[in-house]
Design a protein that fits this description.
single chain, 151 residues, alpha+beta, Yope Regulator, Chain: A, six-stranded antiparallel beta sheet, 6 strands
């Protein structure tokens, strides 16, 4: 069974709606949190035996805010163990990435679940801080402090 088929089976088990991207080993999903919603992508790299899960931040980061957003993401990333944030500098696209390599093994439900839910947790936790930096002119250091104080 392919990793993609396993991933589809796991999302079916979790009750997630998804749409395969034509010609790709990628599923598109939506996620709705209490205060936000965003798009997710589940990608399998069959040849490399890897699974990657992305949450795309629903934030438009203009050129003038990219340096501040980058600082915020760098500060947020420090100390994260299961995942990271990354920004595509030319477009301002921000995503949270979690992944797993299952070479010489298989992607079990027990391995799959934390990759997805750690990602969702990180986006849900740090997205309000990113939004405050971009839309409310909060300084990146202060935004991270506010987010991390809510533990």
């Amino acid at each position: 069974m392919t990793i993609l088929a396993q991933v589809q089976s796991y999302f079916d088990r979790e009750g997630w709606d998804y749409r395969p991207l034509e010609g790709e080993t990628i599923l598109r999903l939506g996620f709705r949190a209490p205060d936000n919603q965003w798009t997710c992508y589940a990608q399998t790299l069959e040849e490399d035996q890897q699974f990657v899960f992305y949450s795309i931040a629903p934030v438009e980061i203009g050129v003038k805010k990219r340096r501040l957003a980058s600082e915020y993401l760098t500060r947020a990333n420090f100390g994260l163990i299961l995942g990271c944030f990354e920004m595509e500098w030319d477009t301002g696209l921000v995503r949270c990435k979690t992944s797993i390599d299952v070479e010489d093994d298989r992607l079990s439900y027990e391995l799959f679940r934390p990759v997805v839910y750690a990602n969702i947790f990180l986006m849900q936790r740090y997205l309000p801080g990113l939004q405050s930096v971009v839309y409310e002119n909060v300084l990146p250091e202060r935004a991270v402090e506010m987010v991390e104080a809510e533990e």
